Amino acid sequence: MAPQEVEADWNLHDEFFNFTRGRFVLDEKEQMSKRRVSFDMNELARIAASSVGAKRCINIEKCADGMFNKAYVFTLDNERQVIGKVPNPNAGIPHYTTASEVATIDFMRNVLKTPAPEVYAWSSRLDGRNKVGAEYMIMEKLDGIPLGKVWPTLDPADQMKIFLQVFDYQRVWTATKFASFGSLYYTNDLDELLRKPLFAERDGQTVKFDRFAIGPATGREWSDDGRDVLKCDRGPWKSVYDYRRAIGLREKFAIECSPRTPKQLAMLYGPGLYQPTRMKRLRATQSYLELLEILLPDDPSLANGHLWHDDLHSENIFVNREKPTEVVGIIDWQSTQISPLFDHCMDPSFLDYNGAPIGDSLKRPELPKDYNSLPECDKKEVIKHYYDKSVMVAWRMLVKQKNPSQYTAAMFENTTKGYLLLLSRRLYELGEPQFHALSLDLWREWLESHPDNREKVAKFPLAFSDETISEIDADREAAQLSAEAMKSIQQRLGELWPEKSLIEHGNYEEFKASLLQIKEELAAELALTPEERDIFHKFWPFDD
């Protein structure tokens, strides 16, 4: 868009307010409505200019649509640029999501010295003082480029410099322990009944921060798929048990209140495959609540609350243009919350490792013995996996040596208990067959670890009859078939696969035609009766 020489009416640009990045293949009408925001762009442009001493805005460029927010680059008449951010209706709980993000950025930037953009102006309340008509943030435009633009071109030594800096930030986050669980706010943004004073342990000393307080959790799991309207306990909580119990009750309540199972693209349901029922999903939440006490790790270092960035992918980390080994900032602090380490992402996702769990051996990877005889196309894939695993092993070695609590949490995440705790956070959407199967696995591990102690064996919270075991095993197998069926759809669609249920405008019609053919092929492969075809169509997640 060309710079404006005269005062413009920015409200005439409808693309500023709508989701324009692509089309959704699941519940498109609903998805689009969740991502339309109406507000006064002229007023937001005025605030953007005044926030840094400019007189007016001369250009506005909309950034690529995010799934939860709209962002804009405001070019001002003093040659400065700032970022404006407006949350979509699906971003989270009104007021709390923006208020927490601003306070979190402030705390990270000015207390923990993690590089985050400075916030110049913001409003989280739709009251008489907010002339924009929407929540908003105006913040610093980082002087750098996303790490993703340079990471693949960096040699291992330079990549090591990057992850050493990220590790240093995470070590500070680990060392800062909070007395409660929830999300961070400015004290005056919370009602007195919804806040707890911010006591944090730093370097072994307990410090009180009067400007900040801990209030309701704003993590994405507390608002996704309609959870934002649930009247459930959102914290803050004094203990990890209370926090984790609230998660189970939230998922149970969501299942009870929802008339349908949310659509997803991890498993295909239907005849010959797994078929979810409300009873099975509720049973999973009840099992979780009964298991909770023995699921929580014994290590006291994993019982503290920590503030953490859980989405450190290469587009959220900015590096110096001229010196790309220097991190200049980290963006996207929305929905950050204070949780135990085992509920945070211990390995930054920019490392891009997608292989099997690393484990505790931390052996340096080796190329397969038949590497030289492999076709060239296979060699490239083998080399990439070898290299990615080498970087991940180096990362884990660093964490193990220099930040033991973080390493302990990473190891715990790959245990049966860790997987159960992970699944428990999303039982409303999916995962109940895997949860039941892992609960059975945990029971068997319990029996093996106490072979001669009947009293201890009897204390396992769940009981499994032969009939229950048979049902769980059958559902485990059916769920595996469901995952494979969805994977088959993904492979058949190839580049047309709708990542996060989103597809580019230009590919939409081709996608629909291909999907219709795949749907008929799958129905034929499953050899469905007319009655089963009706069930298959009922569970088919994609829009017709």
TrEMBL record:
Annotated ranges, domain Aminoglycoside phosphotransferase: 61-340
Pfam families per UniProt: APH
SUPFAM superfamilies the record matches: Protein kinase-like (PK-like)
Gene Ontology molecular functions: transferase activity
Keyword entries, A-Z: Transferase
Taxonomy, superkingdom: Eukaryota
One Gene Ontology term, aspect cellular component: mitochondrion
Name this protein carries in UniProt: Phosphotransferase enzyme family protein
